[in-house]
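Appendix B, Record 12. Input sequence as logged:
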Amino acid sequence: MAKEITHHGMPSYWNAVITAGLITGTVLTVIQLITSYMTIAGSSVTGMTIIGCLIASIAGIISNWMYARGYNLTYPIGKGALLGVFSGIVTSIVTFCLSLFWTKFIDTGMNEAIIEATIKSFEDQGLTQEEIDMAQSFIPDPNSLVGLIISFVSALAMYIFINLISGIISAKIFAKEEE
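Logged structural output:
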């Protein structure tokens, strides 16, 4: 790795953060697409959702591993948390952009198909039309600006939190401070 020194005398962590976010965001988008198509097909997605959450937490681990091992560094867990947070932000941006590209250019009817599959699932569960309408009122239109913003902000908050935790844990493992 190229060793760009920051103003604190340590190498820059951005290469590790961006690489981790790109890897995790791409894999997570694939998992989300698989989950979406499983929903459309009427399959259960519980297992895929759990796998998606686990994949989402890997960005903090990858960034800390790359940074600590790539430069043979030790640093406090606070810096590991920072790497995790930034990795979560990059993951959110990558996932959002790839998903938006997919639904706007590759499969433009996917969001509508998911909504129809969800309504069918509600009907299969025996919900009345009034209950279905009420449930739909809480779900923003995924094609609207408000829906996109809500989707991005909720994913951003989740990925930041998950990778904050994984960043702390992985910094403790990969970048142990000398005692």
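The helical segments are 14-41, 46-56, 58-71, 77-106, 110-124, 129-137, 145-174.
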